[in-house]
Specification:
The protein is an alpha/beta fold. The chain is built from 18 helices and five strands. Strand 3, helix 15 and strand 4 form a beta-alpha-beta unit. The chain is globular.
Length: 362
């Protein structure tokens, strides 16, 4: 039902996810033949994709020993599937079949089977609870809340020019460009995600709005790069790991630090680790900032950090991470070897300052 890019991992479970998904899908359609008919002509492909994601998130939770990754994913997946007419009981069946297949495939590994059993029990308990709301569309308290909704409405109506003009007019009228980033752009993206999660907009519409917002941000760059702020002699590389396509958050981090006088190097989405390592060698930044929206990408950030540490002393290059997995799971940034984590672009500015001031941050 959803299609973010998730890169492969070295886990033996992840390596078998396609075969497991095929096995599970055939049995689901045997029990629920109406599902295959309901989502034709792409029913089989979508169902297979969903099951692959189930196995991938299970693998990540096992690899990092974080049950929250799997239970949080199951909560979110249930809300998305229910919005598309797929019941929690059908999701529960998928999990039962995945467990059955994996236990058979790894029957000789008692420790792995015990770990999997623990995660599946937690997931089934989540599904037994009262269904959570399928996305929270609450009214925010910030004065720009109504403007954020106006901005989103313009883009949902495919009126990108008016949406761009709205942002530029706000900054020209004296609204801090940081507030526009945080309380209009970031807020509208959250509201957009709720609409998609509730099946109120298509994937194509979600992609259009996000792409339009990325283009609109460039219209604000005269206010970001044209302020003649004294340079601090500090440099940043900001990027997303390979496969991670959600780049607005890390882009805001780079722009906020640029407005603080940093020399920033924003590499964008889905940067391969070898190319990123070469770029770090080339410019020798003070701070590397990396974000992830999907928990399976945390494994790649962990691997990246290990490779960076093999080449650089911590004092030479400090590593700042952020994104949904780090916001949701306490202490995750420490577990994977980062120097700090930031909840949003505003806090990233202070964290970057703290990192260069020495000492551990939180």
């Amino acid at each position: 039902m959803f299609s973010p890019s998730i890169a492969s991992t070295n886990s033996p479970i992840a390596a078998r996810r396609e075969a497991v998904a095929e096995w599970v899908m055939e049995r689901i359609f045997k029990f629920y033949p109406e599902l295959e008919k309901k989502f034709e002509p792409v029913g089989r492909a979508r169902t297979l994709e969903d099951i692959i994601y189930h196995v991938t998130y299970l693998s990540t939770a096992l690899t990092l020993d974080r049950v929250e990754f799997f239970t949080d994913y199951i909560d979110w997946t249930r809300s998305v599937l229910e919005a598309h007419g797929v019941s929690a009981s059908q999701l529960a069946m998928s999990l039962e079949l995945i467990e059955e297949k994996l236990v058979a495939d790894f029957c000789d590994d008692e420790d792995l089977k015990a770990q999997m059993s623990r995660l599946f029990r937690h997931a089934q308990k989540q599904l037994a609870l009262k269904s959570p709301p399928s996305g929270v569309d609450q009214t925010g308290s910030h004065p720009l809340e109504s403007t954020a909704r106006e901005y989103l409405d313009l883009l949902l109506a495919s009126n990108r020019r008016a949406s761009k003009d709205l942002l530029v007019a706000l900054v020209e009228s004296g609204v801090d460009v940081r507030d526009v980033y945080l309380h209009i752009i970031a807020r509208s993206q959250h509201l957009l995600g709720v609409l998609w999660q509730n099946n109120r907009i298509s994937v194509a519409k979600e992609h259009y709005v996000t792409a339009a917002t990325q283009a609109n941000i460039t219209s604000l760059y005269p206010f970001v790069f044209g302020q003649h702020i004294p340079k601090l002699g500090r440099s940043l590389v900001a990027t997303c790991i390979a496969g991670e396509l959600h780049e607005l958050g890390i882009r805001m981090v780079a722009d906020f630090l640029e407005m603080e006088g940093w020399d920033t190097n924003y590499l964008g989405a889905s940067t391969p680790i070898p190319d990123l390592l070469d770029y770090i060698e080339e410019i020798s930044p003070d701070v590397l900032a990396v974000s992830a929206t999907l928990s399976p990408h945390v494994e790649q950030i962990r691997d990246l950090i290990a490779q960076v540490r093999a080449k650089h002393e911590p004092a030479d290059l400090r590593i700042l991470v952020g994104g949904r997995p780090f916001n949701r799971v306490e202490g995750l940034w420490k577990q994977i070897g980062a120097d700090a984590m930031a909840f949003d672009a505003l806090s990233a500015v202070q964290k970057a300052r703290d990192l260069l001031g020495g000492g551990e941050t939180s």
